[in-house]
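Give me the 3D structure for Methyltransferase family protein.
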Amino acid sequence: MIGYSCRSCGATLHTSFCDLGMSPLSNAFVAPQRLGNGETFYPLQAFVCDSCFLVQLAEFESPENIFGDYLYFSSFSTSWLDHAKRYVEEMTQKLSLGGSSQVVELASNDGYLLQYFVAKGIPALGIEPAANVAEVARAKGVPTHVDFFGAEVARRLRDDGKAADLLLGNNVLAHVPALNDFVEGIAILLKPDGRVTMEFPHLLRLIESNQFDTIYHEHFSYLSLTAVDTLFRRHGLVVVDVDELPTHGGSLRIHARHAAAAEIAPSVPALLDREQAHGLRTIETYTSFDRQVQATKRALLTFLIKAKSAGKSIVGYGAAAKGNTLLNFCGIRSDFVDYVADRSPHKQGLYLPGTHIPVVAPERIAETKPDYVLILPWNLREEIADQLAFVREWGGRFVVPIPNVQVF
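Predicted structure for Methyltransferase family protein (408 residues):
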């Protein structure tokens, strides 16, 4: 990665943030008939820009290959649907949205959010690069355009009368390699008095809570308000407000407007100051992160070795991308974890990339009665523990690996 240019400001990258070794694409699940084939592993090392403090990976695989046919469907998380509903209610009221408004979501997935705008009679359009996922959204009555968003797509949509009163993107900004083209597209498609909201995991929370497993090849960037504010201002957009959210282990929702319409709330300078106080403008904060990561790896492996040595059975729950980062980095395979259960039928019957642990339906847990269930999407620990409360009937317990190993 050294010698590459920062995808935000163009400065040469010199400083390592976190080195997780070699890993396959975290959503490149393996079909049974391909288990005997080779897999491509890429370096999974994040670097930080010494100039704008954007944490980022190199682009080893194109977005077209990563997202063209995708296995992540947002609607399988009940808590995420509830989050989307609350957002729609809040923004409809805040912006007085109605039948003459236009809402556009970037990376709209399976219509998990826009379906609630459609139900209110508010015109909505999703932009989704994965054709298979877009088809599910259309079946829900959510108009969806299949494409990768950028300046050129934005011009076409604007000229077609789709300029947005509200332009939103949830957990998409981190997935974009061409950040400047993407944000330029936002500025083009947003009406002069429109508002854009973007949600993304907060780098400060990643560092504080040791969330290294959220680093994977599909996430090109790891974002602070400091880095995003600089990026948006480069394109005439100003962050006017920011909400701190509990989702994904701690996220930000930024609200931005064209500079001419910007009136900045106190939350923005307050969070910028807090990020600076926590060292997000100091390179030493980033270079010390690797030590935390290595300590967590050793702790998890110690727990698994002790449990297996005592004859305990362990299964995983949630075939999430973050789980694949964790399992590959720690070298955890089916000798430790018998299988991983997941609600999505799109993943069941496949095998995890790299580790080749089988993915099964959740009903398998009640059949095999494991001693421990390792919750891989730890950010949903309460939701998953509630869904699997029956595990306690035979004395089973839950384990989360992040920010440190906890058994409950």
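The two ends are 40 Å apart (CA to CA). Let me know if you want a second pass.
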